[in-house]
Amino acid sequence: MARDQMTPIERLTAYNQGNPIDRLPCVPIVGNTAARVIGVKVSELPTSGKLLAQAQIAAYRQFGYDIIRIFTDLYGQAEAMGSVVYYPEDETAYLDKPAITDISQIDRLKPADPYKDGHLPIQLEAMKIAVDEVGKEVSVTGALTGPFTNASFLIGAENLARLVGKNPDAVHRLCRLSLETCLNYAKAIIDIGCTPSLTDPMSSSTIISPQKFKEFSFPYLKELIDYIHSRGKGVTLHICGKTAKVWEQMADAGADCISIDNAASLTEAKEKVGSRLRLMGNVKPSEIMLQGTVADIRLAVLSGVREAYNNPKGYIVASGCSLPTETPFVNIDAMLDAVREIGYPITGEKLNLLEQRWSK
User: Fold this and answer.
1) Where would a tag sit more exposed on the chain, N or C end, judged by fewer CB atoms within 10 A?
2) Going from the N-terminus, what domains does the chain have, and what CATH number goes with each?
């Protein structure tokens, strides 16, 4: 398959301006799979900004996708505020102990300094290296966990769920502290030359109701997005799971692009909010990207393109969430190659012909 005719920045700039492009933007959300590209253990990435940058740059150069996302796990901000994170030798980290176990301990918490606390300085170092090395050709983003999700990592998801019903004032105090860390980190990310990329899985309708989203997540998310916009940056927002009931609120919060999980429908998103924001997604990370064949991936990409290529605000081909660490490289190549073969401009007739060919 021929390589690209435009750099990612050239492609996205032209696409944003309605000018000709060679293909749709494509972002297989490569997280810790990048460790495999340079042959290191996943646990090595959070400990070295140089190694993390090397891995993500190498992955970008190998596959040729359109956005680099500096990311190891979702817990960096909470860890910087006192939560304990466990780092398995060769798998993604997970939360071991929240910073507090009871809301009476909230005064122990202080907003994090991203230049000093936890692993955040290492993440920032990786972002700076990536911007300096490849930032003129590809956008470099820094993963930023949303305020409500970060709050859940500070006290534990079960405790937070109970407090939402029993002590809403305490939840707001916790979310406000969480937001202060988010704002500090967003400022640091932008000052380095990156764009924050927001992930807020605990705000999913799979976990909290749309009403609770409006009360406990939306106001802090909006304040964070308003700040990022004030610095001249666009915002991509990913919320895992079922999100159809909060798409309007995600748009109201100011998201410029929403990343759609494979549990949601691109067609429905296009109909509901496609005139307000760009869509991104939603090839299944495990069932298709990890376990599928090259043929499976081509058809999944084509299906997503068929649903959303004519979205009024545009469409980015992407996985529905971060790729599993062991995703085969050939499958990532297959996603990019499918997008390249589809090309641009796109017509229904062309998609039909490709479907006939790829289904054989």
Assistant:
1) C
2) 23-358 (3.20.20.210)
